Amino acid sequence: MLIYSFAVIASLLIAFLCGSIPVALIIGKSMRGLDVREHGSGNAGSTNAIRVLGLGPGLLVFLGDVLKGALGCVIVALATLVLVPVASSFATAEAFQLMQGSTDVLELDPILSILASGHATLLHEVPMALAVVATILGHMFSPFMGFKGGKGVATALGAITVTLPLTAICSLSVFIVVVLISRYVSLGSIIAIITVPIFTALFPLAFPDLVNLSPTYIVFTTLIAIVVVWAHRKNIVRLSKKEEPKFSIPKKDKAYGQGEDSVIDFVAEDAAASDDAAAVSDDIAVASDKDDT
């Protein structure tokens, strides 16, 4: 079924592009005139956006990252919900025609083979699982930012909420608890994403009448967890050395380096952890001189 295959590939490409929308860059430039990649930790994610841009714009970045992850998966979901019945009807007609010539139908069409084997749900589950991966990779390797980006946590939340809402709620709860206790966003992100495949595997066992998932989602959520944890490898090193900065919220919603209530303290807190620590220190010194005058 070439139509089904091409449509799924196209929708996955759209999901990747949705994930690659540089929300932090757009909001930083439009609301503060700043490139978040040049300040704080240098990461184009919502945590650094809150530190650099302030609470309001930072929350907008978080919301935007969540929504783009959800949007990418919704697009793929709509494509598969429309195409699977179409593929089924076409495959049935094609099978009838092929059987007239006594041809081995299943060898000629893999989609028909899946339908005949009673695993038609795979035609929806596999694209959906790939959509989650595509949106996260789009965020992490955005072509709009030179194939660089954030660490994919907020985007993963949006994508998983569409695909596995119960898992998303539980993993988000884990994230909130860990961050409230430790004040380490990175630690909360790492632990929460690790729980995603765990919850995905446990729910069908605990609630077999309510949750019926194939191993497809377990495989792909495990892959997602590995990718996101790998993106946090530097944070893991800093956590092990007790050098990871703790998260806190600016007292007032002001831009980086403007006035006595600016978020200079938050940039300073990240300076040791940032790859641009020396440049950040210079920015802080200049801003502090302005405040003294």
Major sheet summary line: none
Number of helices: 14
Q: Please give the number of β-strands.
A: 0
Oligomer: single chain
Fraction in helix: over 70%
Strand content: under 5%
What is the H/E order? HHHHHHHHHHHHHH
Distance between the termini: 71 Å
Unreliable residue runs:
98-106, 257-281, 284-293
Based on Cα principal axes, name the global outline: globular
Structural class: mainly alpha
Radius of gyration: 23 Å
- The figure for the number of domains is 1
What report would you give on this structure?
- This protein is an all-alpha fold and 293 residues long.
- Helix 2 runs antiparallel to helix 4 and helix 13 runs antiparallel to helix 14.
- 72% of the residues lie in helices and 0% in strands.
- The chain has one domain.
List keywords for this structure.
disordered C terminus; mainly alpha; single chain
Task: Summarize this structure briefly.
It is built from 14 helices and no strands. By secondary structure, the protein is mainly alpha-helical. The chain has one domain (2-249).
Give the topology:
Blueprint: H1 2-19, H2 23-32, H3 46-53, H4 55-100, H5 105-108, H6 110-116, H7 122-140, H8 153-163, H9 165-182, H10 185-206, H11 215-231, H12 233-240, H13 264-271, H14 277-292
Helix pairs in contact: 1-4, 1-7, 2-4, 3-4, 4-7, 4-8, 7-8, 7-11, 8-9, 9-10, 10-11, 13-14
